[in-house]
Structure formats: structure tokens, C-alpha cells
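Bench notes, bay 3.
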Amino acid sequence: MSRNEVIVRFDGVSFEYNANKPILDEVSFSLRKGAKITIMGQNGAGKSTLFGLITGTLEPVEGEIYIDKGSTIAIARQVIPRDQLELTVSEFFQKCFSQKVYDIDPKIDAVLDVVGLHAPHDRIIKSFSGGQQARLLLASALIQNPDILLLDEPTNNLDHAGIDHLTEFLKAYKKTVVVISHDADFLNSFTEGVLYLDIYTRKIEQYVGNYSNVLKDITARVERENMKNAQLEKQIQAKKEKANMFAFKGGQMRLVAKRMREMAEELEEDIVDVRKEDKTIRAFTIPAQENIGGNVVTITDLSILDPHTHKPKHKKVNVIVKKNQHLLLKGPNGIGKSTLLERLAKNETEGAVIMSGIRIGYYRQDFSTLDFNQTPREALSKITIAVEGKLDEEHMRAVAASFLITGEIINTKIGALSEGQKGLVAFASLVLLKPGLLILDEPTNHINFRHIPVIAEALNKYSGAMIMVSHVPDFVEKIRIDETLDLGK
């Protein structure tokens, strides 16, 4: 296979979901065989849409998409579809093929080994943890042995071992890989080029280099453009001041003034449209429920899963989380961290006692605490009324706007939003809820890298009780953690 051969090419491709929601505008780029490419862009810019166009599940409004004849494509999506959660492992992998594969069992074992997961083929998909489901999604793409491998946020929910395993696999993978991810270290380890979706111009910019190099290039370009424009503005102002001075003198000086104005206009034409950076959410705080004190959560006994036998076992602990204390839960994928957080949020853990009257804010990694049939406006209004007893529309909209939930987004059904936008709705919900206990399950999943420091700072300052699970070291390091409970020990 020659790396100089083009395997994917977009020629003047435009796409829109409707007249009010254009995504791409006459986009052109090409990918060569064996390339390892990252797709970058703000939440909602159309990164997953681009995958839909490559796979053919979406059709362009204008332009042509060329896929090298005979090339196969497989995609590992962000989440397993809800209608597949009741399938067995064997049934889940059979759905990857249009025709029944009779010798599929050894193929399943082979790809599960690649992603570092071992599971019986009759196990139900929904019984796997979020991290294990992420590995199943990746394996479902790999089992097809595609020429073009599309990965949509593949490190979400993966523990350190899982990310290391995936990284080494992708380094050795000889075929074309296109990845959507916000994990800088992961991307820097194997990618060699970037497609940047500009949400403002709806164009795609193509860069050579890894993730960090491209960020530096973009930042340097913006600084150069701003500096050039500042110099031009200074020259323009000087020309206009001279024009006014000469015009005031009258006579032949009016001709000089006219020329000065023409020169100012010529300089104004040289001003470039500075490349707009992705918007970052505004700094925010999650207000804590008032008048709480004492032991918010007391945990003496936990039920977790043995990652090898998948059987429950009890773990004796002595953990107390008070107001203004932050607890981090650690442990490998498959040990039951998400299940534990869910039971805590429902106050159904036998070995844990939550103080009566505590308002619980629960951020789930799959956003299932949100009603996908509601709009953000409806969901946030409902929370505001429940907490305040009335709707303060202005305040609700101000909170929503701080999380970039504006315009048509606030009136779009949550189920139709991107995963990153759902995450921002979830954080806006927590701000309005004013919880006394905050339970967070992988709060950086799907979130644009620009937002993560802002979220970390808000959690760092949160004055209620907090219990969190996160596999992102850089994020955890930014947050005050008072106690760590390692469930794997």
C-alpha cells in the first residue's frame, strides 16, 4: 500500500441539517493511505458529522466525496446505542456485519485481546462498565479489519492501562486512522496531521504535525494577524488625522486630504479577518446547598466487582465526606465505580449513609440523568422552579449562556445535541441545582479541551461535599482532593 495514494477526498463539500443549521461550506481536503489524522473543533462544530459523511450515512448537499474503490470503513462511536445494550457480546459483534459470520467466536476473542478485555460471549452489554463498553466499541470496529478506522473519543472512560493499550495498537496499525479526541497526550503519541473544523467559517483547515504543534501554529497565526491589524489600524488612524488636518486648510490641501482618505481605505482593505478561536465557557461556580454540616456521606461497606471473575465482593472502608471535602474514587475499569456512584446518587448503597435533606447533583458519563426529549430551556427551567419555587427566566438564560447554550441550541432537543453540548447542559443543571453533594462520573468525557481548566477551577472551589471518578490525571491535579479511595486495593 503506497502512502502517497489518496484514500479519502472531499471536493467542495457543503452540508447542513436544515436551512438554519449549516455545518460545512465548500470544504476540500484529502487523506492519504496509512495516515494518522486528528479532527479538532469546538463542540457542535460537526466533527461527528464529518464521520457520517465519510461512512456514507450522511449525504452532502453540494460537492463530492471520494473514497478509494474497495476501501472498507469502520467506526468506533462514542457510546453504544441504547437499543444494543440488551444484546449479548456475541450478538453485539454479529451486528457489525451485514451477513452472518459463522466463525465469529475466535474473531471476537482476538479483538477483545487487542483491547485488553476478556469476557464471556453470552454476557449482556449493559452489564459492562463505561470503560469496558469503550473497549467493546473499539473492538467492534477492529473486528471488521477496516482500511479506514474512525474513532470518536476512544479514550473516554478508559483507565490508564486501556489508553496505553490503545496507543500502542494505533502506533502499530498500518492502515488509515482518523480520530476525534480531546486527549492531548494520547493524540501527540501517534497523529501526524490535523483537520480543524472552524465553527465560524464552516471550513476545514488542514495542518501537518501533531496536536500540540497545531495548537501552537494556530496561536502564533492569531497573534501575527492581531499584530498586523494593530499596525494597520495605527497607520489608518494617522492617515485619517492628516486628511482632516489638510482638508481644514482648504485649497490644494483638499486634494492631499482626498489622497490620504484613499490611502486609509486601501489600508482598511488589507485588514485580515483574524481567525476566531473556539469560545470557552465562562468561569462559573456551583453554589452549594445552604445550611448543611456534619457528615454528609458516611461509607463503611462497599460492594464492588472482581475485574477477573466479575463477581461482587465486599470492601470494608471508613470514609466520611463532610461539607467542603472532596473524595476521589480510583480503580481499574470493570470494578464497578460507575455502579457505585449511581447507587450513591439514588441513596441505595447499604454500606453508605447520606445525610437527610441533602440535594444531590449527579453527573453521569452517559448523560442519562437528562431527558433527551426535553430542550435545554425546558430542562433548566424545571430545575430552577424545583429549587427556587419559581422561574427566573433571566437568570436561567444567563447560566445557560455561560455554557454556550444560546440561540437555537437552547430550544433544540437535548437528544439532538452533540455529546459535548449535552455535557455543558449537565454542568448548567448543576449550577442551578445548588447541590449539597456533588457526584461526578468522568466529568471531562466529550468536553472540549478549552473548557476543562474552567470546569476544574469550578470543582476546585466547590464548597459542598464531592465524590468524583476521573481517569484524566491532568484534570484531577487541578482539583483539591482531600481523600482518595482506591477500590482496586
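Next record in the batch:
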Amino acid sequence: MFIFCARRLAVFFISITVAFLLSACGKEPLYQEQGYVFGTLVEVSVYGEDEARAKQSVSSVMHEFQRLHDLLHAWQPSALSELNAAFAKGESGEISSELTAMLTDAIQLSAQSDGLFNPAIGSMVKLWGFHASEFKPMLPDENRLAALVSAHPQMGDIYFFASPVPTKGKGGRIGSRNVAVQLDLGGYAKGYALDRAAALLKQQGIRNALINIGGNVLAIGTHGARSWRVGIQHPRQPGPIATLELHDGEAIGTSGDYQRYFMVGNKRYCHLIDPRSGRPAQGVQAVTVLTHGAHAGVLSDATSKPLFISGSKGWRSAAKKMNLTEALLIDDSGMVHLTAELHKRLEFTAKTTLTKVEP
């Protein structure tokens, strides 16, 4: 279901909070529209355009979000679920040039992360109950989980019958050497959608905008005379733990254990599955990364997962493998581990926040 409404001064907190400090309420040339897609709230803000032009541009973005949601849904009928059905039967499937490019990119990112970013483990995600709108506090069958871990589904199991470089207007045929491969692009799709939204807005002449998809945020231009300002959501308290200015072309993304999770006893089980064990990663509350460049959106989504799974002892090494210089991790005690580069950019909301800068 896709629902959206126009709101001029709506601000919401998800895993990254758009922290607009608006003045002269009602006079700012700021148009905002919210929706619900990809299982989360989305918001697009356009600055400095008349309402009709901004509304038309944002409408095209919202429709693009719905198209991608329908294309990439992992468990409802979609191009991705059709491909998963083929893989499960040991068969190949035809896919579009767009999906070919996305999977080629995801394979490369997975290899770069030594397999910790692994969209091939959709069966594990499903077994833990995260292929649903609501999560039941129930642990999976240990035998089924062990079998999936032993099957070791990975992106390297996927192969293309032709060149993985798509030709405009044409797709290709794709197969898997492993019937246990079930694709779930939940850790990639939001970032891809950010990049698509930015491209659409720029094509329509929008020079200043902020796109927020469930806490993955990408900036275009500025908010008037200043940069866009966003906040990093505190994983255990309302509001942001820190804020920073997001410059043109930058994106920021957070992976946390506080949205998609359930409790059994006093233990929290989140949707971020370690493909090595088949179990939700433990010991980390949140990871935030700041990315740049042509594919900043995708990188803001995909690269935070390997850091989260690597934990407080391995996150820095994982960041280097993913070429991230601006990142932070909040461990289960609330300590903020962060790079020196990101530390320079942040303003913490509480002076008592415990931080540890790591080289």
C-alpha cells in the first residue's frame, strides 16, 4: 500500500532525523511531501521553487518509489520474487537491464565486504520472521537455520548467461549455482531509490532538495543560504544523538537494531542477519555512514551493514574495506565509536555523550 500526503512543514524522526530549524514559519519557500513505501516513511523536501513546480517534481519521485517497491519486493509478487522462485527450483530467469545492473553492483559490493553485505540470504531473513509487516517474538527452528547456514548462499553463486553489463532496453538471463540463494535487496533498495530520486529531480531542474527514505538521506544543493542539516537518531531515546550539515551530493545512512526487531525475554533480535551464523548481529545499537559521489545513495544503504555485523571490534576494518572515511558505531553500552573525519562534522546534542575516535 502506498499513501502520501503533502505537508509544507512536516518533520519526522526515523533512523536519521531531518533537523530543519525553520524560521519565519509559513514563509519559507519549502515544499515537503511524505509517503509510506519500502515499509517505511519517506519524505521529499524541495527548497526555493514555487509550489506547483515542486509538487509536480515530487509527485514523479513518489511514483518512482512505488515502481521500485513493486519491482523489488522480496516476498510479495514482484520481479525479484519471481526470480527467487526460479532459483529455488534450480532454474534461471529473465530480468530487466535495470535489475541486471543492480545485481551486478550488489555482487561487487558483497565481494568488497567479504560477504558481510549479502542480499542472497533472504531465506534467513524470512526464517527469522522479518518478511512480514509485524514481527512475532519467536525464535526459528534450529535445524532449518543450520541447514541454511551450511548451504552458504552468497552473491557469488549468481551468474549471468551474457555480459552482466546491460544493454539499453534489454535485460538478460540470470541463474544461481545454489538453490538456497533467495534475494532480498532490503539493504540496497532504499539507497538505489535515493539516487533515482536525485536524478529525477535534477532532470526537472530542481536545484535544492532533501530526500529521506526511512533514515537514508541525500542532499541536493542547499537549504537557502545554508546547508541542509540532519540529525542522527539516538537508538535508545527520542530525538537525535548528533546533528551535522549535509552538503550537495552527500548521503547519510543508518542501520539500527531499533526499528525492525523483536524481543524474546530480555534479548533483542533485529533484522540485520550475520550471514556467517545466520543469526541477528548482537552488541551494536546503530551504525551511521556518510557517503559521497555518483552512487552516494546506494553506498549509504549497503555499506553500513558490514560495519554493523562486524561489531565494535571489527567495524573499523570493515569501513576501510568499503572505502568509508566517515562512519560511526554505537555499541550496546551506548559508546559512540567514530572516525576522526566524521567527528569533525558532528555536533552532539548532549555534552555527556561518550565518544571514542578510532584511527
